[in-house]
Design a protein that fits this description.
The protein is an alpha+beta fold. The chain has two helices and three strands; from the N terminus they run H-E-H-E-E. The longest helix has 25 residues.
């Protein structure tokens, strides 16, 4: 990921996708032209989160602030289905929710 542009301005497209995913209750899916394109898009999204965390560290220097070193996009899961599956070229951006788990109470 070190080869990406260091400016957040180079990631406007990715930021728009992540913001859309935040607004969508179940997230979004992005069909890509190839598996490689999906992997690159996921890497760019992860790099934007890294940039956003650093910006928030500067904007909120108080370490007790909830956004210090964090990104709103950290609540999202970025996943690509397994290679060979019908959706191997699709990037899913979904909220990290407890509803996505089967939870059983221990008795």
């Amino acid at each position: 990921m070190g080869g990406f542009n260091k400016s957040s301005k180079a990631f406007g497209d990715v930021q728009e996708l992540l913001e859309r995913a935040l607004r969508a209750p179940k997230g979004i899916r992005i069909p890509c032209s190839s598996r490689s394109a999906a992997i690159t898009l996921r890497a760019r999204a992860n790099y934007l989160r890294k940039i956003d965390r650093a910006l928030n560290r500067d904007i909120h220097p108080d370490k007790s602030h909830p956004m210090h070193g964090n990104s709103l996009f950290d609540t999202l899961v970025l996943r690509i289905p397994a290679k060979g599956s019908p959706e191997e070229n699709v990037l899913y951006i979904e909220p990290r929710l407890v509803d996505n788990f089967v939870v059983e109470e221990i008795t």
